[in-house]
Amino acid sequence: MSLVKLPKAAVIGAANGVMFMTFFGALWASIGIIGSHGLGDSWSLVLSGIVTLILLSGAISLFGKTRNMNHAVTPEEREQRRNINRKFGLIFGLEGLAIFIASVICNIINYFEVFFPIRAIIVGLHFFPLARLFRENFYYGTGITLCILGVITFFLPMNVTVNNVSLIATSTFIGFSSALTLWVTGLRIWTDTLKQLKQK
Fold this sequence. Notes:
Keywords: Membrane, Transmembrane, Transmembrane helix. The chain is mainly alpha-helical. The protein has one domain. Helix content is 76%, strand content 4%. Strands 1-2 form a two-stranded antiparallel sheet. The radius of gyration is 19 Å and the shape is globular.
């Protein structure tokens, strides 16, 4: 097996990507769990924990594979990596700022229930420049999916009663669906990186 087809920096970047999807997927899942008001708490917590551990182990395994890679970084590659990191930091920072502004506005107008679908749309939109930056077309699908999920949430009833449990339908839906979207993206990054590493 050869580990020289993919640059070490790319593998580290992929591992970081899996970590990001794992962490933020778990955050979205927690929104779904809280919105469900205890309905299915046990299975949702267990499932969320299992998925998180699996993807976390995947990220760690990718970091481990970089130990076997002796890729000499050229000055051009180093500068390119710095440029990518700067652009990523800018995109991530603008995303955080947009989410903060949306949170403040929703609080001011006393309409916080629309914050989570708006947040999903903002997160979805930030995947478009990331797709171009990392040359990962799959990110476009992730972005489109999150935006569609956010729009769908606007049309859902605020509260729904299931088995005599009143749950926040909007938070439950957008929380679990966004978590699934990010987890699938993390899994895709992991498996695609492994396939490239196995190329001879």
